[in-house]
Design a protein that fits this description.
The protein is α/β, with parallel strands linked by helices and 376 residues long. It has helices at 3-15, 48-51, 60-72, 83-96, 107-125, 146-150, 155-158, 176-182, 206-219, 245-248, 264-279, 282-303, 326-334, 357-375, and strands at residues 27-31, 34-37, 42-45, 100-104, 133-137, 168-171, 187-191, 195-196, 202-203, 222-224, 227-228, 239-243, 307-313, 316-321, 337-338, 340-342, 346-349. The protein folds into 2 domains: 3-55 and 281-375, Aspartate Aminotransferase, domain 1; 61-279, Aspartate Aminotransferase, domain 2. The protein has 14 helices and 17 strands. A 4-stranded mixed sheet has the order 1-2-3-15. A 4-stranded parallel sheet has the order 6-5-7-10, with helices on both faces. Strands 13-14-17-16 form a 4-stranded antiparallel sheet, with helices on one face. A hairpin with a 4-residue loop joins strand 2 (34-37) and strand 3 (42-45). Bound molecules: pyridoxal-5'-phosphate.
Length: 376
Amino acid sequence: MTLQNKAVMDYAEEAIIHTYNRFPVVLDHGDGVYLYDIEGKKYLDFAAGIAVCALGYNVPEYNEALKAQIDKVIHVSNLYYTTPMAEAAHLLTAASGLKKVFFTNSGTEAIEGAIKLARKYAWTRDNQSTDHEIIAMNHSFHGRSIGALSVTGNPHYQEAFKPLIDKVVFADFNDLEDVVSKINDKTCAIIMETIQGEGGIYPADPEFLRAVRRICDERDILLILMTSAKALGCGVPIGAFVAGEKAASALTAGDHGSTYGGNPLATAAACAVFDLFEKKQVVANVCEVGDYLGQKLNALAEKYSCIKEVRGMGLIRGMEFDRPVATIVARCIKRGLLIISAGTNIIRFVPPLVIGREHVDEMTAVLESVLAELSE
Ligand SMILES: Cc1ncc(COP(=O)(O)O)c(C=O)c1O
């Protein structure tokens, strides 16, 4: 590690609570799908700020949209309307097929709001009874606030912070029988990810999802699936939960709030992101390059017996090893490739969604060089 990087790292550690074991890299700026440290070293980015920077870095149209909003106004509070807030809300309802949006500043807060909505919905429907239950999934991850932690199916994250919120029961993801066995008259919501990310990149089985949706509809249980954050602002903090008309109407003035939530800068970022997803045909790219990434990762799995399984879809993929991946990740970073893990034995690939095949080739060449070295 060079002196300049080391000096900043030490300076940061002096004043920041050590809740993250950070990699020994001091990043300075980005361009395209590459990041640069303060000494000019270049990194191919397959982490994207943990699945946030979907458009990559230094994107002129995105930067201009933000600069234009900064020159107008950054924040006004939720006591007033703004045009970006209205536009971003409509973009989200159109994309989701749902009706109403509440803006937050993070994924955790989106989960908090959705839990509150579910409880208020059931409270109103059931003569103000307060004994409702939520079913969450084992190995899920929903964030670090007490509410979100309470529905996160990983005791490791929860233990030291108990008591958490009451009446959360856990079921096995993709196990319909188990989920059904946990439902009772008090169940007000079922919460799950469509792809368990932190849990190790496990996609929901479409049949399982459809069945849970059907059961929720039949029993008037809210399915908490439409929360969003991460790439919604591509780096400007913003999250949201989106609900159908009937569920959303449970929350009335004063029930929930956020000083910053949906502020003009954050919602202008979300509007720019929606616009650029269209213009750059990001979804088509995810399908095409995502398939290619899957093929390349599977080819590596054929060749190296330390790889147990490759999972995921599109541009969110996981590679499970028969050993901890910390050494692999560290060596890749030294060679100018940013990748991250999920749990101890899994590498998680969450690159910017605008990468091309050439970046997949570049990434797999570095990864393979490290795997070859470790198999010697
Ligand atoms: C599925 C899921 N939900 C919620 C969160 C929490 O989001 P945030 O870190 O923005 O609070 C995360 C973060 O990784 C996540 O992956």
